[in-house]
Amino acid sequence: MRNTSTYTFENRDYWSSTEIRDPGCVFMPDSADKVAAAVSLFVKNECKFAIKGGGHSAIPQAANIDDGVLMAMKNMNKINIDFGNNRVRVEPGLTMGSIYAALDPHNLTAMVGRFENVGLGLIVGAGVSYRVNQEGFAIDNVLNYELVLANGTIVHANANQRSDLFRALKGGNNNFGVVVAVTLKTIKYDGKIFAGIVYHPESSLSAFSDLVYDYHTVQAVKDPLTHCLPQYGYNGTTNTTVAITTVVYNANVDRLPPIMRGWETTPYTSSTVRKRTYHELSFESNEGYPDRDVQEQRVFTVYADKKLYKDVWLAYRKWLEGYRHIPSLYGLHVVMPITPRAVQEGIKKGHNSLGLEDNGGKVLGILYFGLTISNIEDTPLVLPAHTAFVESMKRLAASRGLLHRYMMLTYSGWDQNVIEGYGPDNVARLLAVQAKYDPTHVFQRLVPGGQKLPGICAVNGWGSGTVVGRDGKLLGVEA
Ligand SMILES: Cc1cc2nc3c(=O)[nH]c(=O)nc-3n(C[C@H](O)[C@H](O)[C@H](O)COP(=O)(O)OP(=O)(O)OC[C@H]3O[C@@H](n4cnc5c(N)ncnc54)[C@H](O)[C@@H]3O)c2cc1C
């Protein structure tokens, strides 16, 4: 209940301070049965609730709620490795780091996220792992979802049982039920990979942008064991940009292979690339992304294009500079590929809901725009302008015939119509699954947070509700 230490901690334990809300109480189940009993009770009483995994969504109210019940999954944190069948069952309160830490000692890994503290929300979104170029998204490597439905039953969804629901969950977010466990495929590795973070200075950024394009269209395509997470970080206080790239070769080697040499030859300031485990890498990747401040993010997808990549970054750099008077402003631009093989893995492993099959076999680029500011009072000044800027970049991409409709759910902004972006066939399929498993729209009406199915209810986010600061003080009520 309010004013208890558990309530206070859980209500503030979020990556973005925009997620700190004003729930009526916090419920922390430690078993699927307790989740099922709670959902039945909520439905019976028309009680609104939020489902929280690791609390890393930047969408206000995606995983928290005003007045309703905050159901935080943290106490559901068991991991069971099935060595004989190459699979691992994980519960939804686990973080990526804890999954890597459990698997690494057995020379096993699974397709989850890349950052230690991030939670399993991505398992109903997409999920970019260190091995995405080889294995496809995290959702494509789920073998079974265990889910509490709106009627309070616990069901399994997999390729053989409820395959319609199985596919819907691969991208369907919290629209169909509460995930109480997932079984993931495991793969063997040598216990060490060659990986670390490379920092490039502003003077290298033109060459860096070309290197990113080369990664998308050559390295990631020709050698699926490659992985990079290229990020431009702009610091408004110093008016400088540093490119921070997690560079990975997913094998126990002593050097990057020749195809990745550009990461060594483009002038950089420092590098931590060396042999290590996935858990060590996830830990280092998470440094620099503490829970703090106001986080806003937006995303869209393009067909990979060298000039567009550079133009968009330069335009974002200029836009960010215009707002550097805002205290602690930090801008992050991330450019991630979706290779044809990654898309094919999704098809091969039973299809997902993302609608990427129609990309004509081309490499796609996810363009992410993230903004960090310290004062929530500055949001009216900067966030609408940020939205307008990203929309202008979408128009630029469209004018060059390079815009793809997909928007990655896990990096999306609150008012981006992500699920519509999956395309009409997938939307129709998702709505049919909803009609079958949640005919009274419990997971829209009573779980209003996060990306919702189109046409059911307004998206919650900046548009409504109270805003509470990290100190618990009420900062305002949005219209
Ligand atoms: C620092 C940082 C690093 C990141 N790194 C990666 C990365 O490497 N790869 C990647 O793909 N993404 C990454 N992301 C994005 C991340 O995948 C999304 O933010 C994801 O939604 C986080 O999941 P969570 O459980 O932590 O978040 P939450 O905010 O708790 O949940 C996100 C959404 O999922 C829903 N949800 C959570 N648990 C359940 C459940 N059990 N049942 C039903 N719905 C549920 C919530 O209701 C919410 O709407 C990163 C984000 C951050 C901030």
TrEMBL record:
Residues 19-189 form the FAD-binding PCMH-type domain. Pfam families: FAD_binding_4 (PF01565). The lineage of its organism: Eukaryota, Fungi, Dikarya, Ascomycota, Pezizomycotina. This is FAD-binding PCMH-type domain-containing protein. It comes from Bombardia bombarda. InterPro entries: FAD-bd_PCMH (IPR016166), FAD-bd_PCMH-like_sf (IPR036318), FAD-bd_PCMH_sub2 (IPR016169), FAD-linked_Oxidoreductase (IPR050416), Oxid_FAD_bind_N (IPR006094). One of its GO terms (molecular function) is FAD binding. Belongs to the oxygen-dependent FAD-linked oxidoreductase family. It comes from the Eukaryota.
